């Protein structure tokens, strides 16, 4: 996988004009948007619901005052009530679904559908009132349309086609339903609507660009604060956090927690003879191998600093881990990173110390134990794995038990 910091940096250079990241970052952004905006969306829907109910009450009051008992009125009322009810049901359904987390990853679709129902029923009631000669409520459509651009957790690309479709539907409905005498007022409102939509679209675009920039910057900072830029492995800071979680979990589940420290042998000599750049490349290769040994969710591969790496292994058997670490040493030798000045071998090798966390241990005490084992491995001739028991010291690539 590409180093996340490189991905984020590449996105930052793009300046977000097209409001689209690469596939991986886009997925992250959309889930971030859904997660962080849920509260805003709920707030907006509540406001929409209150407004909707307020307007419905106002409708009833106006209707009662202006009622003349004509057949037309009875017919309009038959349409008006379902229209108000549809808006109410759509908003309530969305809210209940959000509180109970029923929508999952379809939340934005549910929002779009609700906003559309909200707008259509708004237009319809406006039109019905106009037909009943009770004042033109169409101007209210502008407010309703604005709801599409409220912070509903939708992206600009999601809101734009919906709004454009609603606007076209509104214009077509007006042109089809209204008489030519009513057109002049309708066009005035329609032009206002178009202007309003353009302004909101522009601000929505700017808002999303800003959100995207903040998102990538934050991800980049978070990532860099917890990782080593050269190898992409976790650093000591993330290790400390992860270690505390693992230790608490291990105590709770009565599981083992093992720390491995891997230190490259004679790396100073390697640097001195092959140069710092070659040293960097070697460190990256070692990190790549080590990462494969931390494939389970609770395991973590770390660069502790310099030519020293770590591996936290949760619920693992110490002996099985020792064998895996020997296998790792074999793999390192298999890389054939030539080190002809090393007194140990003709290629780059490493020494490994393993420590097991006791119930009362701290990060420092665990490191001290692992360091002591590493020291043993170095003293025993390097290219070795040493653990808490004497019989855990073994030379790589072939197992050799120390007496
Ligand atoms: N290329 C490169 N070298 C580094 C980096 N960080 C530390 N080093 C080098 O790693 C070397 C570590 O040397 P020492 O601590 O003396 O250990 P060693 O030579 O490996 O000896 P032993 O551990 O006893 O086998 C130093 O030369 C550091 O300059 C890095 O990021 N890149």
Automatic annotation (TrEMBL):
Enzymatic reactions: 2 GTP = 3',3'-c-di-GMP + 2 diphosphate
UniProt KW keywords: Membrane, Transmembrane, Transmembrane helix
UniProt cross-references to Pfam families, sorted A to Z: GGDEF
Enzyme class, spelled out: transferase
Keyword set includes Membrane: yes
Start and end residues of each GGDEF domain: 255-390
EC numbers for this chain: 2.7.7.65
Residue stretches spanning the membrane: 43-64, 76-97, 109-130, 136-156, 163-181, 187-206
Stated name of the protein: diguanylate cyclase
């Amino acid at each position: 996988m590409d180093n996340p910091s490189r991905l984020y940096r590449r996105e930052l250079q793009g300046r977000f004009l097209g409001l689209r990241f690469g596939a991986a970052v886009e997925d992250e952004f959309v889930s971030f948007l859904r997660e962080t905006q849920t509260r805003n969306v709920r707030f907006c829907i509540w406001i929409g619901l209150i407004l909707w109910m307020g307007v419905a009450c106002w409708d009833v009051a106006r209707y009662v005052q202006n009622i003349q008992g004509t057949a037309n009125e009875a017919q309009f009322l038959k349409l008006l009530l379902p229209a108000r009810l549809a808006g109410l049901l759509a908003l309530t359904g969305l809210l209940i679904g959000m509180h109970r987390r029923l929508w999952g990853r379809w939340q934005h679709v549910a929002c779009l559908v609700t906003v559309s129902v909200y707008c259509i029923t708004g237009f319809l009631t406006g039109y019905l009132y106009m037909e009943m000669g009770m004042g033109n409520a169409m101007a209210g459509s502008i407010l309703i349309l604005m709801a599409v651009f409220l912070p509903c957790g939708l992206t600009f690309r999601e809101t734009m086609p919906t709004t454009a479709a609603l606007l076209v539907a509104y214009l077509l409905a007006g042109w089809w339903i209204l008489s030519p005498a009513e057109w002049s007022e309708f066009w005035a409102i329609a032009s206002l609507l178009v202007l309003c939509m353009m302004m909101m679209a522009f601000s929505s675009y700017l808002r999303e660009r800003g959100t995207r920039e903040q998102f990538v910057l934050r991800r980049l900072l978070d990532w860099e604060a917890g990782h080593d830029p050269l190898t992409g492995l976790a650093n000591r800071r993330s290790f400390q956090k992860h270690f505390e979680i693992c230790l608490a979990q291990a105590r709770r589940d009565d599981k083992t927690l093992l720390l491995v420290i891997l230190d490259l042998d004679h790396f100073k000599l390697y640097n001195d003879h092959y140069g710092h750049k070659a040293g960097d490349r070697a460190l990256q290769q070692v990190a790549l191998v080590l990462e494969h040994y931390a494939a389970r969710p609770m395991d973590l591969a770390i660069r502790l600093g310099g030519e020293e790496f770590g591996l936290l292994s949760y619920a693992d058997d110490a002996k099985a881990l020792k064998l895996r670490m020997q296998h790792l040493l074999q793999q390192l030798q298999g890389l054939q990173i030539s080190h002809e000045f090393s007194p140990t071998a003709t290629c780059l090798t490493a020494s490994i110390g393993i420590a097991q966390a006791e119930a009362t241990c701290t990060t420092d005490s665990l490191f001290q134990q692992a360091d002591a084992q590493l020291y043993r491995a170095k003293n025993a001739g390097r290219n070795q794995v040493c653990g808490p028991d004497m019989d855990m010291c073994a030379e790589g690539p072939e197992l050799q038990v120390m007496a």
